[in-house]
Amino acid sequence: MRIATYNVNGINGRLPVLLRWLEETQPDAVCLQELKAPQDKFPEDALAEAGYRALWQGQPRWNGVALLTRGGEAVETRRGLPDDPDPAQSRYIEAAVDGVLLGGLYLPNGNPRPGPKFNYKLAWFDRLIDHAATLIAAGVPAVLAGDFNVIPEDRDVYKPERWRDDALFAPEVRNAYRRLLAQGWTDALRTLHPDETIYTFWDYFRNAWGRNAGLRIDHLLVSPALRSRLSGAGVDAHVRGWDKSSDHAPVWIELKPPGRSRR
């Protein structure tokens, strides 16, 4: 089972890129972020023609999250986090997909820091940590996937000294990410590629893509119930180089089929 996350940075404007990538890689489930489209403008028909069912929560101009599935049906379990500090913002959607509980998220950027946007980021992160703890306690096979807007470590950013004051790299944010992992979640990409330089985002400015001046901010976290099934993880970085592509690249994991119990 291949599960991917992709911040499309405007689903209608990037639809040809999204469809091309789906055709090329055929993931089984995809979490999308930054739809930047109201609920009634989501391209459901085009995705259906490509073989994907969709659950989505749109928002005019900003944010927006969706779950796509190929083959199996997604059974929606949640929209928004419990006690979300701003329920009007579309940032979390969750569904059961082929025996896996998949939570797609778009964590707030938080800039400028300090300020109300940074405070909102920390508050939203706290709600995510609380909800993630309930999934761990339930022992369910779960994946949290999306644009976390968190650079976990110095090695996850080109020239980290330039990001010390940014909300993506703030000590409070990195500590929150570590608190989340401490519940038992596995950062799939870093776990399987512990020594590699890995980026998932390259800004449109200053030729960041051409210079490979990137960040790793898109993550897939696997619960303990799925850790033994994790067999692969990667970044489809070449997609960032396509014409009119998002500034993010798709990130994916592969899960082995569940083991059969012995008599």
TrEMBL record:
Site positions per UniProt: Important for catalytic activity: D218
UniProt cofactor note: Probably binds two magnesium or manganese ions per subunit.
Record SUPFAM superfamilies: DNase I-like
CDD domains: ExoIII-like_AP-endo
Site location (Interaction with DNA substrate): H248
PROSITE patterns found in the cross-reference section: AP_NUCLEASE_F1_3 (PS00728), AP_NUCLEASE_F1_4 (PS51435)
The protein's name: Exodeoxyribonuclease-3
Lineage: Bacteria, Pseudomonadati, Pseudomonadota, Alphaproteobacteria, Sphingomonadales
